[in-house]
Amino acid sequence: MPADVTSTSAAGDLAPFLWIAGFAVCFALHLVIHPLSRIFRDALRWLGQNPAPLLWLMASLMVTKVWVLRTGSPPFDASLMPATTPWPDAFVACLTDAWRRFALVFHQAILPPPFWPGTWGGAALQALISATGQMWLACYFIASRATAPDDPAALRLTAARWRTILCLAVCHLPWWWFQARTDLPVVRDALLPEFFIFLAPLPLAAAAEKVDFLAAGSMALDWWRKCWGPFLVFTLTAFPLLVLLEYCLRLLPGLFPVSQLLARALLESVLASAVHVWLFVSAALLLLRSAYLTPTEHR
User: Fold this and answer.
1) 266 in any annotated domain
2) Which range of residues forms the domain containing residue 219?
3) Is residue 1 situated within a structural domain?
4) Among 46, 88, 204, 251, which residue's CB has the most CB atoms within a 10 Å radius?
5) Cβ within 8 Å of residue 92, ≥6 positions away
6) What digits encode the pLDDT tens for the residues 202-233?
């Protein structure tokens, strides 16, 4: 066999490991030399002490995976990517899904299964579940900063904000409606992620203060005014990390035989939910520390 063919084959075999290594290095750099490295380390420490959000999201990802496989609904996860795909093509292919994943960091504490896909009723139910889950996560996070984490207390705080949850569900409704549609991909893949990112501080603002939806929106705008610079730095590095994560998730199906579907789903869920919750907590700490002079103010 010619030497150039052998070297090309060897490079193709090593490509998946290089992507996975790149993901690990990018994660490590966030913790060591990133301008916001202290926030990323604090978020990782919080996640180790409070695993409930990670477990809930991981469980919902696995339930949704099983639901999709059993009902034949359009998959929410990325499609299989061959390990031999050239890295420029792989990078471009992962951009859109990584951008959507970044938008969902702030609005998806639980991934609801695709109930009645393509209908307004199914989209409304998914929107209500996602809005409630995100408000619970925000309340749980705020409560954990004051006292020991208490699930019943977080649930009571969430229930007290039911009006805000309904308004937030209305904001989530277009997202879930367009996920089951193949037309208007520009709205689904370009406009709606920006809309979700703009609403990013809203659930946290509603949890930090017992205020209605409009007051929470006003607080969110004030937070944007105070921390747009650090949040831009956060975005510029978190997005490439999610691109690498997206590629790793697309690579996993090719590494597991069909008989090990459960193991593959478990590994995908653990990896995706860990990065997702870690980035959300990092963003939440960034917003709170930029918005308040001390953590005890404006409770």
Assistant:
1) yes
2) 15-291
3) no
4) 204
5) none
6) 999 888 877 788 888 888 888 888 888 889 99
